[in-house]
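User: I'm putting together notes for a lab meeting next week and I want to include a structural view of one of the chains we've been expressing. I don't have a solved structure, so I'd like a prediction I can at least talk through. The sequence is below, exactly as it appears in our construct file.
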Amino acid sequence: MPLRAPVLLIVDYNLSRIGDVLHMRNYARQQWGAETWLVRDNPQNHDLQISDRVIDADPLDPEFVLHALRQLGEDAGRISAAMVFSDNAVASGAALLEQLGLPVDDAELALGAFDKLAYRIAERRDRPLLEPLGVVLPDFQQIGCINDVRNFALRQERGFVIKPACEGNNRGVVVIAPGGDCEQAFDEVAPYLEGGVLAEAFITFTREYSYDGLGELWFITEKVSATGRYPVEVAQILPARLSEPERQAIRQTGEQVNRLVGQRIGPFHNEIKLSDTGYQTAVIEPNRRPGGMKIWTLAHAVHGVDLYAAWVDSVFCASVPQELPPATCSAATVMFGVPEDMTLDVVELGDIRTLVDDTLTLAAQTLELAKDDITLLECAWIIGHSRLIHATPRDNSDFVAHACVALHDARIDICDLVTVLREQWLTVLNRHLRAAQLFKVAS
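Assistant: Thanks for the context. Below is the predicted structure for the 443-residue chain, given as structure tokens.
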């Protein structure tokens, strides 16, 4: 690498994305001869291992831009390309890139992609434009005390959702049925009051998708979510099973969301519900980042396009695909849970791949598939230390493991595979838990 190599600056990331950051760092080095610098609050050893330099700055600090620029000093001139890779940094990171004179999506509108209350306010301002397009805008209210919850509940005939304004991963999201316990719901979100809490009318549409993409490139991912009090996501599916009019309804809404939050050239992941009849839509939340739960990994398997590489190319001002090639298979990210509430140390269970391979074998037998028709793309434990995991997950991290799989038999509905995998995982996990317990007793 030359002495004064160009620099790719990555502003913050979620720890679950560490592999994606490393992948982009390696690609930037190979394709562009670039170093990768990382802006990160309180950086740790793993941050140093996936980058060539780390700048210590908190994207939620009001003085973030000043702190980052001060540490960069004259080296700021070496930065040729940059990207914002976390919800926490979506606004402040964009402001930093604007100060550096680098292409980036709008910093002023970015708050709507981080703060759910700010988005609802922006959405309400555009009601005259959105409602004629079939976008349903839910009633909402900022929550500051228990009386706010009680008063909001009085005008919600179909129940409502209460959630933190600035948290991800479905943390703190609680569904309250009509006549439900407002006090208990308020207690669950009380830890988030400082960062903002809002209540929204429950959107009764049962189908949920995400409008995903990069710049002008777009695709739609189908979500499988739990029902009940905690609407966590248990799977993501590509391609989404939609008619063309349904695809266009989601696309139309997704583009309106991008306009509201200032997305033009970067990644996006807008969560949208679709009515069971007709083509009405309702926005759950916008995001100016790649979708979670390995959605871009699924897109690579299904369409053959490495979107992380495309993102790096785009910030170096290279052209990127404007559409994805046709799907060659279907794929899903599947979240694996536990049969009952338990404190689990995955170290005792050994290699995750062994358990997932056993699960795939049982699933193939159940669906009368050839084992080769299911390809394991990747898998990992979600927890790395002993902690309580709930049988009914309360957020998107309340699982024990995940797997990304591709299905190469068009006769089988990928959603059926998701269901069977989650069932068979519990069988395999129980077997390994019993074996681990017997080993302890024998020892």
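A couple of points you could mention at the meeting. The two ends are 53 Å apart (CA to CA). The chain is about 35% helix and 25% strand.

User: Perfect, that's what I needed.
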